[in-house]
Amino acid sequence: MPPTTAARNLLTDNPELYEARFPDPDRLAARWTEDCLRRHDAGPRVLDIGCGTGRDAAHLHSAGRRVTGADLSPTMLAHARLHHPGPEYVCADLHGFDLGRGAFDAVVCLDSALLYCHTNDQLDAFLSSCRRALAPGGLLVGEMRNGAYFLGRTDLLDTPTVASFVWQGTAYRSATTLTVDRTAQLLRRTRVWTADDGSAPVEQRSAWRLLFPQELRHLLAAHGFEVLELHDGAGPRTEPPWQEGRLPGEATDADRLHVVARLTTTP
What we know:
267 residues, Methyltransf_25
């Protein structure tokens, strides 16, 4: 049976399924983020933009931060309020948001959420929004795929990566294929879902902007940010993953990119 193309996203429409597919029982992403915030003396007010299910926002809250989790998906936000209470959760679009001028000491954007800004205008709008949201000296912490990794490398491309897991008694299988659109500077993702409950296969398509380290550094500088860290690991999604006490690296060659930048000028 050929797959049907879904108009919506199976994972964001089903937060429990998302957490089953991408488990993080040790809250590694949030612990890495808290380590960055501590090392650079960030204040307590944190905006987690693109917070998804709220796991990371809730962990930062438990670490003593005053956290606002923001996402565009009402379903994700409802799940976060119910299952990961503590932060304030609000609906906001990372392509442009206004949650108060100088309202936060840090803006956090994890798991390649920033790369859903596909165009230069969207990137400028995101960074302008972060600049407006941050108090002087505030931090921007980002974690994402590294566009530089795909210069001449094809090991992650064109061949499906298969993952299988069980959720609510149903066995799911996802086959994910990545391709590079060089003209648009996008990493395109096609994911085909199958399940053993007799439902038809579902094909979903999405994309990330491919940002290169020096390009990201230039964009940040243009919006008044000083880059404090820019490296490929260790991080929450690297191999080996980050551990407590690990200091940031200096290279930007592997497939993940981590950035910490401080706002040095205001609009």
